[in-house]
Amino acid sequence: MTRRMLDSAIWKNEKFGVMPSMARLLAIGIINHADDQGRGKAHPVYLRSQIFPYDDVTATEVADWLAMVADNETIQVYQVDGKDYYQ
């Protein structure tokens, strides 16, 4: 079992800090759910089910937050066979 540690420097990162709190939470969830190479599914409905199972958020909100996380260069979103992934 691989344990993912969140670098404490993330809290001082200006790119991370300027995002809304839910986008920051998504970024942390993405780190937590990534595989050993730092990759994962970037589908908003999937991310909502994995990271926000108890929250009243929409897939559209997750898509907006995902775009923010990608725009600030925290992750890179790419496609393989028409499916979205992040790294």
Short summary of the structure?
It is built from 4 helices and 3 strands. With 87 residues, it is of the alpha+beta class.
Keywords:
87 residues, alpha+beta, three-stranded antiparallel beta sheet
Description:
There is one protein chain. By secondary structure, this protein is an alpha+beta fold. The chain is 44% helix and 11% strand. Strands 1-3-2 form a 3-stranded antiparallel β-sheet, with no helix packed on it. The radius of gyration is 12 Å and the shape is globular. It starts with 13 loop residues before the first helix and ends with a strand. The mean pLDDT is 92.
Write down the Rg.
12 Å
Low-confidence stretches: none
The mean pLDDT is 92
Please give the alpha-carbon distance between the first and last residues: 20 Å
Class from helix and strand fractions: alpha+beta
Shape: globular
Q: Kindly state the percentage of residues in helix.
A: 40-55%
Count, helices: 4
| Beta strand count | 3
Query: What characterizes the major β-sheet?
Result: 3 strands, antiparallel
Strand content: 5-15%
How do the SSEs run, as a string of H and E? Answer: HHEHHEE
Spatially, the strands of the biggest sheet line up as 1-3-2
SSE layout and pairings?
Layout: H1 14-17, H2 21-33, E1 40-41, H3 44-51, H4 59-71, E2 77-80, E3 83-86
Antiparallel strand pairs: 1-3, 2-3
